[in-house]
Design brief:
Distance between the termini: 39 Å
Structural class: mainly alpha
Strand content: under 5%
Number of domains: 2
Shape: globular
Largest sheet: 2 strands, antiparallel
Number of helices: 8
Length: 185
């Protein structure tokens, strides 16, 4: 994307451009729908389409194609450790945006703009301090740094991102795969 390019307002499905609503609040809700265990897959598709498409298609096939095109358009995060959780950090995110004059409860900014602003928040806001703690590596314990390491470990525990059982299993499986490839290797 170039600085002069507008944020995407359409996606192409089967050669046809369809309008999308990529307001940050709608995108985040649509992503949340994926983890709603009380909904069927069909209900999830319907809800996501209602959130992101001004004119949702009728057929399941077209819904899947449209949602796939939308999610392929969204920026991908790195596959490493997460340092931000939109639910757990919601108050800190809102507060950080308020500091720059944006009330997220009153805004429907484009998801891309939301991510750009999120990545450029002032370093002295609480959210950025929490992220810094999460990212900070724990140094090797020595006699001279044991108090620092203990304090850092307490802070990391206090601000750690809470993982779902599914995420914990996926991470365990990934680490197991990584370990087995090293052992074979």
């Amino acid at each position: 994307m170039n600085v002069y390019d507008p944020y995407p307002e359409t996606v192409v499905v089967d050669g046809e451009e369809i309008r999308v609503n990529l307001a940050f609040d709608r995108v985040l809700k649509a992503l949340d729908v994926q983890n709603m265990e009380d909904l069927t897959q069909a209900d999830k598709l319907d809800l996501q389409c209602k959130l992101l498409l001004p004119e949702p298609p009728e057929s399941i096939t077209q819904k899947v194609k449209a949602l796939t095109a939308i999610f392929d358009t969204l920026p991908k995060g790195d596959s490493g450790d997460r340092h931000l959780d939109f639910h757990q950090d919601a108050k800190l995110i809102r507060s950080a945006f308020l500091r720059i004059g944006i009330d997220l409860t009153q805004s429907h900014m484009h998801f891309f703009q939301f991510l750009e602003l999120l990545g450029d928040l002032p370093t002295d806001c609480a959210l950025m301090r929490v992220i810094e703690i999460r990212q900070k590596p724990v140094p090797k314990l020595t006699e001279s740094n044991k108090e620092y390491v203990a304090e850092l470990m307490k802070a990391k525990a206090r601000y750690a991102i809470k993982m779902s059982d599914e995420e914990r299993r996926a991470r365990f499986a990934a680490k197991l795969k990584e370990t087995s490839s090293i052992l074979r290797g």
